[in-house]
Amino acid sequence: MSQFVLSTFRGRLTSNVTKTTFKTNLLRPLLLSHNFSSTTSNNNAVQNIAVFGSGLMGAGIVQVAAQNGFKVTMVDLNQEFIDRGKEIINASLKRVAKKQHKDDAAAQKSLIESTWSNIETNTDSVKGAEKADLIIEAIVENLQTKQNLFQQLDKVAKPDAIFASNTSSLPISDIAKATRRLDKFAGLHFFNPVPQMKLVEIIKTNQTSEETYNSLNDVIMKMKKAPVICKDTPGFIVNRLLVPYLMEAIRLVERGEASIKDVDTAMKLGAGMPMGPFELCDFVGLDTLKSIVDGWRKDGKIDASLVASAKSLDNLVESGHFGKKSGKGFHSYS
């Protein structure tokens, strides 16, 4: 799932969407749970990062990493995708520079140039991965596609390179099975828009080593993000709580208990939410929401009542109404 809580499949949005003012305080991230150890110094600190995928999520991860001193290679299938990713980064960097250095054009220019100096691009997955200490995957949300990529990368990456998936809905352990480095595999779930959203979920499988976790925690802290750690369970933390909430809002309206407008108003004014559930559904993408719910229902690991289908959601998706990105969802954006 994308935007506030769910990662997009590729996140190729129009320039108007990338200029949207995002509301970034939906949930206040909890810091590390007392059940897990805090970060420790790592002698094998990550310096070079490869990000596979140059859509909104991938480009955002590249930008934040490069801004904070990592050497980053952005990798995608072809130059067209790479160029689009560079446009996303450039537009975002300009906004960040103006915000940080409002009246100082020289400082704005310096921030932008120093960030770009840390970024390389490549359409060759082998060359893109060969010097990486950490490889982050942010491609299409399809298990087989992710497994195929990591299987290929496992053969060419450095033996001690850490692998991480930015998936928001697929089991990390299932993706990791395609590799021979299960102890060096974890989830890094960033939230969109990456430059603004502080939270990153670090997902540990039963085989993720403590050394790998500590390295990833160090990376996220250096990126000036707030890490939380969770086990490899459906939806991790945020989506596991949020998706059932969104689905119950839809079912409440389907039962005729309130209108869409009143539910949105009630949750904003009564619960302090910056967006109502239907506004958030549209912002996330109804197709994305439906895909996650359908996948969880098929997986059978979550109470069926929480992920039961909703006719109004199914009908909107079938009609091509995906929310804000398509111009219409539960609300109209024309």
Automatic annotation (TrEMBL):
Source taxon at top rank: Eukaryota
InterPro entries: 3-OHacyl-CoA_DH (IPR022694), 3-OHacyl-CoA_DH_CS (IPR006180), 3-OHacyl-CoA_DH_NAD-bd (IPR006176), 3HC_DH_C (IPR006108), 6-PGluconate_DH-like_C_sf (IPR008927), 6PGD_dom2 (IPR013328), Mito_3-hydroxyacyl-CoA_DH (IPR052242), NAD(P)-bd_dom_sf (IPR036291)
The 3-hydroxyacyl-CoA dehydrogenase C-terminal domain, residue ranges: 235-333
Site (Important for catalytic activity): 189
GO cellular component annotations of the record: mitochondrial matrix
Family listed: Belongs to the 3-hydroxyacyl-CoA dehydrogenase family.
Name of this protein: 3-hydroxyacyl-CoA dehydrogenase
